Amino acid sequence: xxxxxxxxxxxxxxxxxxxxxxxxxxxxxxxxxxxxxxxxxxxxxxxxxxxxxxxxxxxxxxxxxxxxxxxxxxxxxxxxxxxxxxxxxxxxx
Length: 93
Fold this sequence. Notes:
The chain is built from 4 helices and no strands. By secondary structure, the protein is an all-alpha fold.
């Protein structure tokens, strides 16, 4: 059982909002044995595996594979756009 030394004072703890009625009822049932809701939640979170960290090189390889499937397009430069919109005297075409 956790002692007060393991938890910060209540005024420094951030509140957790439980939006699910099902989860709230389940938490109330689990707390009947005398454990606090905090202990129950912490125990459940400790049992969950952490997500695997992504390897940067593998992530970039995935992105490059997606980019390779996208057709390459060329876009006009600002000079080409200006030449199309304006004549040599600076007047609109």
